[in-house]
Specification:
Length: 733
């Protein structure tokens, strides 16, 4: 529809019809499936109000969405279609690895194509907008939603944000693409104590330096929507924060798309204590230009009174309604309210072998080999004892894979039995003994995974067939409901019963290859010390079983590299690579050994560093050269290097480029990732690589909150992880 007609349509709406466009309800209000996870409460909304509603939360399926849309259009006076929005965070029916795993791929192109696959599946099933990518920067693994993030680094998160938005929106054609909604704006990952929904408070300088760039990257990549976060920013909850949502997001960044609140976040301005009732909450959120109220009755029950009493300028309402109508128009819904969703498309585009292969490929590159005392890869005829509660489990998708088709998930047992000739298996224990902590929701979710066969009473370690085993492949980890939303924990150890199983495996005297499934870094120093090899699988998704098994037997040469530091213990948190030096840096100061920035009982370094990961081949970086000795501000920098594969095995290496700014007008990180390239390299090959740094690599936020490049000395490091020490120092003036 052209803008003139759209404006005519808007001007013809009654106040109630305008307000309805700003309301989002879940499936239960439309006889759909209730999939939204969160505090659901009867909202006291009447049928007329439901008939005016503008969008639907977490309903999918071509048949269901078409039925709801048809019924809605019958009752809608102006035939304004609904938008269907949902959490296709890292998959739809076909599930990718959880984002901590995706963050470990360091493969921009693969991530973009994988997210295009998600859009292909979801749009065929009637979903128009996805509540993804989640780009919150996280340095605290106690926060359950580390699961959904790509990690601790501002540059890397920005690269993934761009790739994911481009993947979802690609050519924006109906039936194969969908609108992205970057979340959670802003800084949701920085909650105090790693506790979900908790207070975020930091300087605006730190917010702009660390937290905001990845959201900006998603918006610059064209994300059509932004979702507010539950937390405060400078004392004001994001959902009612006019500086954040209007002055910064819209006026300074020029974002003209739709802002949607997170689930019930408009209402939550009341418990936050910045609104005394729903009316005040409504006014605050609308004036902050939050366009859609997700799943509360605030907008629908209070906006009319605010307008009619003159407390709220009608222009504020009209601006929000206009943005929502423009989104519907951009989606082409006025021409095709179903956006080409159909049962035929679903059959052709959902859970296809091609999609499952994409999930496999990204799983291959998400898995991180953290230790290998020469035992991996295993020969396919090795006599394997596959042990532990994840071995035969489909619970390897992470909590936000709410649309997952679990029947198509390949378990590790299935993968191992395809790739090895002699396997015995026993779960031995449950992933988690006490499910009480997950409450009713947990029981509902888990009811579909009841084990259909009781485990044998005798431990596999005590059976005769175990005696001739060459290796124990032991699976341990975090239950999928032990992370994710509302999954913050103060203790990140593996559960006691899992550690007992680990120690029992060790006592057999056989080599132990430990595979860990989790949504986040865990505290695993004993397991790492005592295992012969450690593979971190994250939640590897629909084809996880194949991906892990093919790393075990060497079909795949692991290439995953961590996108988040692993702390030695919880007391060390937050521990991250691009920290500031402090005035008393441990190990490089004249102060006595005691009076420096360190702990008495734990090293400063993490157990595993950002960027770290092993492969089955051995590569070396040599002959790193820059195109000049000194540079002017504004110059780009050409880096050349030789990558040498000293082994007879093909593989992939991620060349990581870090910069250290020696002196700034504000403190500067000890080093900062500024570019990377993932490179395939053949056996015994020497490859010349060139990587360009543009001026963004040297920019910073100064104390006046300006983005500047300051002259001076910089060191450029080129290595395989953030521990790289050798660099080249240049002058930039
Ligand atoms: C949840 C999450 C958000 C999700 C939304 C809709 O509470 O915070 O990430 O998109 O509700 O399900």
């Amino acid at each position: 529809m052209n803008k003139t007609d759209l404006k005519t349509l808007m001007d013809s709406l009654t106040l109630d019809e305008k307000i309805g466009q700003l309301v989002q309800l879940s499936g239960e209000f439309f006889q759909g499936q209730e999939l939204s996870i969160g505090p659901s409460s009867k909202l006291g909304i009447n049928q007329d109000q439901i008939n005016n509603v503008g969008s639907v939360l977490n309903v999918s399926g071509a048949e269901m969405t078409r039925k709801i849309q048809e019924k809605h259009l019958e009752t809608s006076r102006h035939k304004i279609p609904l938008i269907f929005m949902g959490d296709l965070v890292y998959g739809f029916k076909t599930v990718l690895p959880s984002p901590m795993g995706i963050g470990s791929t360091w493969n921009r192109g693969l991530v973009e194509s994988a997210y295009k696959m998600i859009a292909n599946e979801g749009s065929a099933s009637g979903v128009h907008v996805t509540f993804s990518p989640m780009v919150d920067l996280v340095r605290d693994p106690r926060w359950g939603r580390v699961l959904e993030s790509t990690g601790e680094d501002v540059y890397l998160n920005g690269e993934y944000a761009r790739a994911m938005v481009k993947g979802f929106q690609n050519d924006f054609e109906p039936g194969t693409s969908m609108a992205a909604c970057v979340k959670h704006f802003a800084a949701y990952g920085a909650g105090e104590g790693g506790r979900d929904y908790n207070t975020v408070d930091m300087s605006r300088w730190r917010l702009m330096t660390d937290q905001l760039p990845a959201y900006k990257a998603a918006i610059d990549a064209g994300s059509k929507l932004v979702m507010t976060s539950f937390n405060t920013i400078e004392g004001v909850p994001a959902t009612g924060n006019k500086w954040l949502m209007k002055d910064l997001l819209r006026d300074e960044w020029g974002f003209e798309g739709v802002v949607i609140s997170d689930y019930a976040a408009v209402f939550e301005l009341i418990p936050h204590g910045v609104a005394k009732d729903e009316k005040e909450a409504t006014k605050m959120a609308l004036e902050a230009t939050v366009d859609i109220d997700m799943k509360t009755s605030c907008y629908v029950n209070n906006t009319k009174e605010l307008i009619e009493s003159g407390e709220l300028d009608i222009q504020v309402l009209d601006d929000s309604v206009w943005r929502v109508l423009c989104l519907k128009n951009e989606l082409g819904l006025f021409e095709d309210p179903y956006r080409e969703a159909s049962i035929e498309r679903e059959k052709a585009q959902v859970l296809t072998q091609e999609n499952l292969d994409v999930s496999k490929q990204i799983a291959d590159e998400s898995i991180v080999l953290l230790k290998n005392e020469g035992i991996l890869p295993l020969d396919k005829d090795s006599k394997v004892a596959l042990v532990g509660p994840f071995a035969d489990s489909r619970l390897v998708t992470g909590m936000w894979a709410i649309n997952a088709d679990y029947a198509s998930v390949v378990t590790l047992k299935q993968g191992v039995e395809k790739n090895f000739t002699n396997v015995i298996h026993s779960d031995e224990i449950e992933i988690k003994e006490d499910l009480e902590e997950f409450g009713a929701m947990g029981k509902m979710l888990l009811s579909q995974f009841k084990k259909d066969k009781p485990e044998s009473e005798v431990s596999i370690f005590d059976t005769e067939e175990f005696e001739d085993r060459d290796v124990i492949v032991l699976t341990l980890g975090e239950h999928i409901l032990s992370s994710g939303e509302g999954g913050s924990r103060t203790n990140l150890d593996l559960e006691n019963h899992q550690m007992e199983l680990f120690r029992k495996a060790k006592q057999t005297g056989k080599p132990v290859v430990t595979i860990i499934y989790s949504g986040r870094p865990l505290i695993v120093d004993e397991v790492v010390k005592e295992s012969d090899a450690v593979i971190w699988a994250w939640y590897p998704g629909s084809r996880g079983g194949d991906a892990v098994a093919e790393i075990l037997n060497g079909t795949t040469n692991p290439s995953g590299r961590l996108s988040m530091s692993f702390p030695i213990n919880v007391g060390q948190i937050p521990v991250y690579y691009n920290h500031f030096a402090t005035g008393r840096p441990f190990g490089s100061t004249s102060h006595s050994e005691r009076f420096v920035s360190r702990y008495l009982d734990t090293p400063n370094e993490p157990l595993f560093a950002f960027g770290e990961g092993l492969s089955y081949h051995q590569s070396e970086i040599k002959n790193v050269k820059l195109d000049k000795e000194s540079y002017k501000i504004g110059d780009s920098i050409e880096i050349t290097l030789d990558l040498i594969n000293h082994s007879d095995r093909d593989g992939q290496d991620t060349i990581q480029v870090y910069v250290k700014d020696h002196v700034g007008s504000v403190v500067r990180p000890v080093k900062q990732l500024v570019n990377f390239e993932k490179v395939a390299i053949s056996a015994n090959e020497t490859k010349s690589i060139s990587i360009t740094l543009d001026q963004d690599a040297f920019s910073m936020i100064n104390a006046q909150l300006e983005t500047v490049i300051e002259p001076g000395e910089f060191t450029i490091y080129v290595g395989f992880d953030s521990k790289v020490e050798e660099g080249i120092t240049i002058e930039m003036n």
